[in-house]
Input
Amino acid sequence: MARTADTGEPGLLGIYLNDHLAGATGGTELARRVAAHQSRETGDTLRRLAMDVAADRAALLDLMAVLEVPVRAYKVYAGLIGEKAGRLKLNGRLLARSPLSSLEELELLRLGVTGKAAGWRTLRLLAETDPRLDRGRLDELIARADSQLELLEDLRVRAAQVVLGQGPAAGA
Output
């Protein structure tokens, strides 16, 4: 059973990683959905991001296996259900996609990547005392998350300008 490095209390690392897996599952779905509703250029960028997010989820699963943390399927399903439920928000339109949708989805995706980066940094701290974790690989994952944050912030600002009428036409 996985033990935390500091307290030795069983299960806390497993809970933590499964919570991140739930977020990664929802985030992967959200990234794919956001990419599908953009112009070609922005959509291509977001499709590459969605592939990176999916690869990060796979990396988390690999790390969980290395740490012998079992996957809790109910948390994975909760992540999927949470992403689907997020689509039901009131956005000023009943049947059509609101211009606010892209902005809000980019903000949610950015929040998710911020959480993912924090998770990688936490594991990087653990790697100092747990030889099962590859510090170099965690450094790569942290750098990729930081790069994703920069990209998402740029896209978020552009979407905000469009929604607020201060930028080029939607989807540009």
Summary: The longest helix spans residues 99-127.
